[in-house]
Amino acid sequence: MSASGGTKAIVAALSANLAIAVAKFVAFLFSGSSSMLAESVHSLADSGNQGLLLVGGKRAQRQATPQHPFGYGRERYIYAFLVSIVLFSVGGMFAIYEGYEKIKDPHEIEHWYWPVGVLVFAIIAEAFSFRTAIKESNPLRGKQSWSQFIRRAKAPELPVVLLEDLGALVGLVLALGGVGLALATGNGVWDGVGTLCIGVLLIVIAIVLAAETKSLLLGESAGVDEVRKIEAAMVDGDTVTRVIHMRTLHLGPEELLVAAKLAVRHDDTAAEVAAAINAAEARIREAVPIARAIYLEPDLYDEAAAKRGTNPGMTPAPDSSPH
After folding, report:
1. Which of 35, 171, 223, 240 has the most crowded Cβ, counting Cβ within 10 A?
2. Residue 75 in contact with residue 61, Cβ under 8 Å?
């Protein structure tokens, strides 16, 4: 996995979650708090998720084969999608079930100092992991807002770790609130309510992750800046006069496919056109290094056909019809 894949953030999150999962489970054994049990399962699920991200990053590095000529870059998207499934089922649904059971049959929390102490420790550890993920994300985020970064990032690992860490911190606060209210009122129902809130939170995060990863699996185009750089690199103003139409597709976070039809002058020789196409490919790779697979087709631009919308190479207008 490349540095942009956020390996450091994943390892930091994995280390924190393993330690926290053990501590939470010990606290559950001593206190009987359902919030602690839900949080321990949550941390265990997060640890498994970070393991999945590392496995996906490793498998994505395999060389292309005749059966998979564009390589295995999308494996990172597949494993990120598996993370959302684990978070939904193991984390969210279990917490909702456990919260329901605790509300139906509440019991007092014993040895209150165990869950409170572990939750404080977990908040500190998760905050460290979250800080690492933020530091790793900032160079890639640039001027984008955090919501824009999560929606537009082509590498899935950092958005996944960011959302998991944010969910973990909010979940810990909810667990601490549930345990605190249960201790203050002597009513174990509050512990169950806190557990239910944790379950709902995890399911919401899992749905967001699934939606974003689904978009990557379907195939996203290059970003606006990359598209502009590619278009500018294609046209030399001499042999290549304009871009008739272009399509881009991410084969993986650091692998981009570019396919375009370029307008050339009608009186250029085949040798001149071939040289211009080769030069355009070189300029594209220099401008956008992740453009690995480039297919350029020379053609003659028909302005009348383009205006009528009958030019098959014309980029279609955005669909304004309701979906």
Report:
1. 35
2. no
